[in-house]
Write a structure and sequence with these properties.
4 helices, globular, Transcription Regulator spoIIAA, alpha/beta, 112 residues
């Protein structure tokens, strides 16, 4: 994953399938724990599947970013197959989604 500091307080992560997914999400989690002043936008356009470990890491990241740090987390570019996993698990109600990275970045900046 490439994590970019898109702005002073927005991190943009480009995710890929496992094994990189798990490692990169763990590293991103450590980064937002160390510096809680970041919103996070995750680009899922290269992710083709999710397993239970991936979902657990996403939920942990959400807890850190949204609950502990009171910041925003947006998931972008989710494929139809991966979207199905979110629907089956009911997590489409837990996470915030946008169609693409540009909309994700914009929504992080304008949400109140």
């Amino acid at each position: 994953m490439t994590v970019q500091s898109w702005s002073e307080n927005i991190l943009l992560g480009d995710l890929q399938d496992d094994p990189a997914f798990s490692d990169d999400l763990a590293a991103l989690g450590e980064q937002v724990e160390a510096d809680p002043n970041h919103d996070v936008v995750l680009n899922f356009s290269q992710v083709t599947y999710l397993n239970s470990s991936n979902i657990a890491r996403l939920l942990k990241l959400r807890k850190t970013v949204c609950v502990s740090n009171r910041r925003k987390l947006k998931l972008c570019g989710v494929s139809t197959h991966v979207w199905g996993v979110f629907l089956v698990t009911g997590l489409e109600k837990v996470f915030d989604f946008t169609d693409d990275v540009a909309l994700g970045l914009a929504s992080v900046q304008i949400d109140v």
